[in-house]
Amino acid sequence: MTDIVQIPRLETERLILRAPQAEEFEAYRALVASDRAVHMFQLDRPAAWKEFAAEMGHWPLFGYGPWHVERREDGALVGAISLLSHDHYPETELGWHLYDGHEGQGYAFEAATAARAWAFGERGLPSLVSYIDPANTRSIALAERLGATLDREARGEDATDLVYRHSRPAERVAQ
């Protein structure tokens, strides 16, 4: 029998990071089928389901994975924050996406800050990076706002990715 994995619930001032729910697949599917996913990947329905399920599989395999992010005031699903170690990733990635209409409000920054603190603190991960398409200026700006620095020596998910390295809290203080 498989153990049931308890996905930690993280709370910030405005947000709740919680376990994804199967019925939220439609929001994810719509995102990855749209032009908004041009910097991530655009997927048809079967491929989107496989990606959704593969990300959920991180929790029992690695002890981390995606959280869906909801707004505390009304429960609206605003996006997702993920810690991912896909087979083809050189390092564990801190990734994010927001659903249409939720950009520019600081949600990704707030959720990514909480997820990164949990990853380095509770989970004790040794490193985190964000793999970013060079044309995705909004994600680059967010990575830099989070204090991540471009690591030109690191290998990305694919050859064109920029790799932004997130430092551990003690390293951020020393810099």
Count the domains.
1
Largest sheet: 5 strands, antiparallel
Mean pLDDT: 85
Topology, number of strands: 8
CATH class: Alpha Beta
**Range of helix content:** 25-40%
Please indicate the percent range of residues in DSSP E strands (runs of 2 or more): 15-25%
Report the total helices.
Answer: 6
Radius of gyration of CA atoms, rounded to a whole number: 15 Å
Order of helices and strands: EEHHHEEEHEHEEH
Unreliably modeled segments: none
List the helices and strands and how they pair.
Elements: E1 10-11, E2 15-18, H1 25-33, H2 45-56, H3 58-62, E3 66-71, E4 77-84, E5 93-98, H4 107-120, E6 128-132, H5 137-145, E7 149-150, E8 162-166, H6 169-174
Antiparallel strand pairs: 1-2, 2-3, 3-4, 4-5, 6-8, 7-8
